[in-house]
Design goal:
With 441 residues, the chain is of the alpha/beta class. The protein has helices spanning 27-32, 87-99, 109-116, 122-133, 137-147, 156-174, 186-215, 229-237, 280-295, 311-319, 352-362, 366-370, 377-398, 403-421, 427-434, and strands spanning 5-8, 17-23, 46-54, 57-67, 78-84, 103-104, 217-222, 255-261, 264-270, 298-304, 325-330, 342-343.
Length: 441
Amino acid sequence: MFETIVALASAPVKSALGIIRVSGGDCFDIVSKCFTKDIRAIDKRTALVGHIINDDKIIDEVVLIAYKGPKSFTGEDLVEIMCHGSILIANQIIKVLLAKGARLAERGEFSMRAYLNGRIDLVQAEAINDVINAQTEEAKDLSMMSLNGDTSNLISPIKTKIADLIALIEVNIDYPEYEDIEVANKEKIVSSIDEMIPIIDNLVDDGEKGKIIKDGIKVAIVGKPNVGKSSLLNALMGEEKAIVTDIAGTTRDIVEGDVNLNGIVLHLLDTAGIRESEDKVESIGIKKAKDTINEAELVIVVLDATSELDDEDKEILELSRDKTRIIVYNKADIKKAKDGVLSISALNNDISALTNEIYRVLGLNDSNFRHPSLNNVRQIGLLKQAKESLIDARNDALNDLGVDLISVSLMDAYTSILSISGENHDVDISREIFSRFCVGK
């Protein structure tokens, strides 16, 4: 039985209503000590109106909803107190509850208890945070699929296949005398793994695209001075975010801005023009621009359609050669670029060809928005670990190692898959996840 915790579950701002959440083994007893009605005998979800009091002094009139565990979010007795939305009142109520025996909740502790009590798995727990932090409707919808359990179901086929193969190997090891069981030979193991790896590859691919929908993508706009990088940033954002002049070197630091491009948030970074410069301040900006190329997930290289490529353009193309990039010729309003290249006029907001190309390069389609995906770094990383372990098991089988040794790699793969939903109850990993939550969740 967990000790009783309390926290403000609504935003800590003045509003019409505030919500205080209390959960734990002594929850009903503690709340009864400061509420005008005794709730200790409640055996089902109940809503009550009354007063929170302290030494016969009324703090506030509240609506109280009591949830009897395990039919609550945390899986234990839980109370939500809806008070007037004054921070002063909320803090007074929390102070009284602390005095009666509760303690302040840690970050994410309510959701962690829900996980530990089997009310949600880790994928659903992470989705709570994702729903709260969603920047677009598309990101919210994707996170809701995870919260509803649809995403967790994605790993069921691969989990079953690995478990079946491990079980088959164990039966062959423990009961070799039985002749009517399927033999766990090299061919069977290799063919089973060959069926699983494409499934994982698809999950990883969908997950990486889902991560873009959920988190957005960091986009660096680079080029030499005066090619129109700042004009392009402003055109993409639909506002005058960056200063634009005809003076080369106007942008000396990274100018940032976010834009929603058909459901994808582009975290735009307009950089200083890359060139040789003796100006100390500009040189710092140029170094930052080069560093930004390395950090960006997508690089837009802006070239000047009115001039031929020079050494500075070639240097930028070389710096970005190994990155996912789009090469675009700007100033098409002055001179049309040669056929077969991407041409825009940032000054005239004629950038539709570029926005279409961004979507194409990201490889997104309608399916990525409509179907669940394992879409954060932890989940994708565990899928990749599972694949590597399966490859190890396959190689072991091809090298005629004993099935008992092959099963070690298969068990590693199985553990990685279980870790995605937290079925292996790795509490240390859980704490790392929940530490990112706001206190009242």
